[in-house]
Amino acid sequence: MQLKNYQDLQRDILQNLWKIPNDVDLIVGIPRSGILVASFIALSLNLPLVDLDGFCSGRVFETGTTRRRKNNASHYRRALIVDDSSRTGEALAKAVEKLNTASNALPPVTTCVVYGTSTIRDSVDIVMEIIDAPRIFEWNILHHPGILKDACLDIDGVLCHDPNYLENDDGPAYLDFLKHARPLYLPSHPVKALVTSRLEKYRPETEDWLRRHGIVYGRLIMLDLPNAMERRKAGVHGSHKAAYYRSSSATLFVESELHQAHDIARLSGKPVLSLEGPEMCMPNSFSPKALQQRITNMRLLARWLRGHLGDKSVDRLRAIYMRLPRVKSKSL
Asked: 2-136 with 144-288: one CATH topology?
């Protein structure tokens, strides 16, 4: 699983600016992530910027003092329609269709994405970088329904800020923290599971905070120990989270602390995203846990295939596979 963060985005755009045609003199961003990309391209090339709806209505954003242009989209030679990423090119196709139905006279357009899959080369004019799935982007991790439905999220340091030393007293101060914790990254779509080292005895307060902040989740996994002192003695923060993650069908864990993320990846055999960085922590491919997870993944795939294709189809596929020639490695 490949992670692209904001620094990667900036670097990849700068390295691919040469792909933009010389006659482009207006940058158009598709909301929302496309606006981020379009703004950076416009600043880098010192070109005017507009959002898609503004472009359709014929207006352009003010350009400040470094560039003077008329604020009418029809006065430009060529517009670059930009989005951050695309798997199918569908969003860009809808944008172009919207332009074709606009009442204003608009300049010709060139479509562009920073990150695209190998399947959209023919449907998008400019693909700056080819990145096939699985992939995730820092700017939309917690707002992508396809990611969140198969993800486990930590709570403290992800959904809300971590308690400080005084708040973490396992008493009145901690209860006050649980009630008034400041939100950090609130997911926009349902999450498969929330997996936290908070103690089970604080479930009512935790569930109340999640409800008040509109967080929808499948399961809430907490640590079943009597108090914070026992939790510190046990030192099972990472192993507790890894145990559930390993046994679940989740494909990503989002953790706040980097050292815990490495532990969870090592113990679960699955990728873990640490928001400290951010950094994607991958398990050792040949560790026992990783190999065990591969076997589990294959079993889950077989179960899914039988459910959707039926036993006869799966048996037929297996028979075809067994008849395939095996390549024997040559001895050195």
From this structure: yes
pLDDT bin (cut points 50, 70, 90) of residue 187 is very high
pLDDT in tens, 123-158: 899 999 999 888 889 888 888 899 999 999 999 999
Q: Give pLDDT tens digits for 273-291.
A: 999 888 999 987 444 544 5
The full 3-state SS of the chain, as one line of letters, equals CEEECHHHHHHHHHHCHHHCCCCCCEEEECCCHHHHHHHHHHHHHCCCEEEHHHHHCCECCCCCCCCCCCCEHHHCCCEEEEEEEECCCHHHHHHHHHHHCCCCCCCCEEEEEEEECHHHCCCCCEEEEECCCCEEEHHHHHHCHHHHCCEEECCECCCECCCCCCCCCCCHHHHHHHHHCCECCCCCCCEEEEEEEEEHHHHHHHHHHHHHCCCCEEEEEEECCCCHHHHHHHCCHHHHHHHHHHHCCCCEEEECCHHHHHHHHHHHCCCEEECCCCEEECCCCCCHHHHHHHHHHHHHHHHHHHHHHCHHHHHHHHHHHHHCCCCCCCCC
CATH class, domain 2-136, is alpha beta
